[in-house]
Amino acid sequence: MIQLLTDHVHNAYHSLRSNRGRTLLTVLGIAIGIASVTCTLAISDGVRKMVDTQVSAFNGRLAVVRPGFKSHDPNQLVSPVTQQSFSTSTLTDADTAALSKLPNVETAVPLMTIEGTIHAQHATGSNSVVLATTPDFAKVSNITMLSGKFLDDTTDDNTAVIGLQLAISLFDTDHPIGEAFTMRGQQFTVVGVLRQDSAPINFNNVDLNNAVVVSFEQGKNFNQGRSQIQQIDLLTKKSSDLSDATKQAKSKLLSQHLGEEDFSITSGKAITQPTGQLFQVMTGVMTAIAAISLIVGGIGIMNIMLVGVAERTREIGIRKAVGASQRAIVAQFLIESLIMSGFGGLIGYGFGYLSAFIVSIFLYFTPAFSLQTAGIALGMMIAVGLFFGLYPALKAARKDTIESLRQYH
Amino acid sequence: MPKATTSTPVIQLTTLTKRYGFGETSHKALDEVTLTIEKGEFIAVMGPSGCGKTTLLNVIGLLDRASEGDYDLDGKSVASLSGQQQARVRSSQIGIVFQSFNLIHRLNVLDNVALPLTYSGIPHLKRLERASEILKTFHLQEREYYMPWQLSGGQMQRVAIARALVNHPSIILADEPTGNLDSRSSHVIMEELSQLHKQGNTIIMVTHNPNLTSYASRVINMLDGKIASDTSTMPDPTAPKKSVKIPLNQHTKRKEKITKTTKTPRKKTRKAAK
């Protein structure tokens, strides 16, 4: 049996070699299909890895409190915070203060975002997000400074830290320390620039690269003196405290909110769940689209195999006449198509990662390797080879021996 | 004129009918053929075109199934065999030689001869050894790595015969083996076949050429799917031939004998024969 198998492989190799151009084009078709699937999966793996790194960066010490009732609204999938834009946040300064006093909690950091247009001397920044938060924000996020310093207890309310991209578009420099800009009639001085890092997706979709960070008090000033907290990040002292801290925070907030559970506390991987779900759906859709090219490649295999079967009708007849069973003929042609799809798959897998890395030049994250992607690529190439090779192989095997021998080539 | 023997006949056909088409358009290629073939016979099947000679050979060679009637091979009915088992019988018991040689053009001579061994699960190297061995008995060893299209018609047919024999089958079926050959090559091929016959193989040969029947031990004439006559030209296949063999051409007659163990190089005579 194994003997016959190696014979088939040997045989297929020779017959594929004798039609090099044709084989190459077919393999290329499969390679493109597998490459597009691999590329999509590699990029989405990159996103997932990035999100996971952010969560694990705090060693499981981070919990996030968000206002509003728990909802399973599908809209949450796309934008986890839209519902809050229309209502006053249920989280208050008192909640922040109470949470930071809990025994296991190191710090509780409130976050609120404000809309505002930024005017510098020569340029105006639009689409920028203004994030108002406390100095402890530096502890709960993995931000690093490119120059200057982050807000701390000594900085005034009219100082701000800005993202690198914003610094370049406003001041044409990546070292704009001491430069001034106005926002909502108030003048601010830049004291620090954030390093361009992987954007923390879990902070209300804030793109820190293009954001202004001001003190929480200043944020309240912009909001008629009231806080509109969109998120409180809890950092526990030890990672083993996380579940205890989450429970304590929940009971504390419940008592403060008179038993109304108008907030939600998530921790660990659940923080990134909305983003994760969104990416999963998107990855699924994109992979499905990419798979179409794989199907086209598969049809290419089937087409070329049918041509091969037609061309070699006489050979099939001869083989049967000298003792080949139908099964042997099926195996011979199936192995041929599997070799083609296999080669295409291998080339496509490499090519997919190559193009993923090329694409990632324009993105803020790098593609990641995962066993799952390799498994999917492997599974797909085998499935395509089997599925699209089966019909031509069966057709070859079912050919009438005498009819086949009568064919002249 | 089947001989009365105690051993089971190699091939036993009983009222075998092969029908093509349906209803009114149906046509019987074989019409209730009953035939017994003993081991070691050399049978020449004659008859005009379309009389069912090739169909008979195809049915015996398990390339085709009869519509009605029984076919016992070595005392066992083939009707009950599955496709897989039939393939196994084809590969182990039957060797077929075609008029148009039917060599695979992609493969060289050695691989072509080794082809039937592929399907009996013999390792690659061993296959080539055996193919090389059998090619030697046909004095084609220096042509082993030629491609089929680089050979003459007679050489191709000898390669085809070598392929048919590589599995040591008990039955050799030849469908007009000399039909595409000139008289010189025909003669060589017939010598090879008669040599095989002498070694105890059963040979069934379809031919149009009445001259070739002189090699056979039994001649069957067919007409419209029926056996018209069945004459034994040589009752005892081991006895020296009594019938007069008519050489095709006095100048092309082969002077040497072909045996499996020939060791002396025959290059010169081969070239002279051409």
Walk me through the structure:
- The complex is a heterodimer of chains A (409) and B (274).
- By secondary structure, chain A is an alpha+beta fold.
- Chain A has 2 domains: 2-53 and 277-406, no CATH class; 91-261, no CATH class.
- Chain A contains 14 helices and 12 strands.
- Chain A has helices spanning 2-18, 20-56, 75-78, 82-85, 93-100, 137-140, 164-171, 216-222, 242-256, 273-311, 313-321, 326-360, 371-397, 401-406; strands at 62-67, 105-115, 118-119, 124-125, 129-133, 145-148, 159-163, 180-183, 186-194, 211-215, 231-236, 263-267.
- In chain A, strands 1, 2, 3, 4, 5, 6, 7, 8, 9, 10, 11 and 12 form a 12-stranded mixed sheet that branches.
- In chain A, strand 8 (180-183) and strand 9 form a beta hairpin.
- The two termini of chain A are 31 Å apart.
- Helix content of chain B is 29%, strand content 22%.
- Chain B is built from 7 helices and 10 strands.
- Chain B is globular and about 50 Å long.
- Mean pLDDT of chain B is 82; it is low at 1-5.
- A 6-stranded mixed sheet of chain B has the order 6-7-8-3-9-10, sandwiched between helices.
